[in-house]
Amino acid sequence: MKVLFYQIIAILVCLSSCQTTDKNFDNDAQEQISDSLKTVAIHFLRSWEPPFNPDKAINLFTQSKDFHLVIDGFTTKTFEEWKDGVPNYMADDDSFFKSYKHEIKDIRTVVLSPESGVVTITYIWDNISSKDDTHKRVDGAITLTCRQEKDGWKIVHYHGSHGDERIVE
Prior knowledge:
Elements: H1 2-16, H2 27-47, H3 54-59, E1 68-71, E2 74-76, H4 79-96, E3 97-113, E4 116-129, E5 135-149, E6 152-168
Parallel strand pairs: 1-6
Antiparallel strand pairs: 1-2, 3-4, 4-5, 5-6
């Protein structure tokens, strides 16, 4: 997880140097975009909690060819593959876990332009197994590259990873 933290910091530092220098793009506009990016990321995490909502999760993503998603090293290269898998992934989680939530630790954004930005959330995934009532907490992080499309802000690239599970007594 420490390596992931340093990777995220490096990405944010690099991206912040790429921010727009357009004088017509003022701080208020950047703040509004930052808030929109945070909202997209939070809505994604909340869509992945009971009651699971596949449509809410799926609708946050672009349907364009540059869609790309990586979770814990597993790559999904097309929106269609993601769209087809989400209901099954959520059904599995619904049957495997009695309790399931994300506690947000930190959220950061970098506004790249009036139409693009990056948001990273670090969180703790807190869950209780349906099978044996084991309570676990897992550190996690997602980094989303988003862009403004005709129907709102969409996730274009998603990278998520989780650390080791810690059993809570």
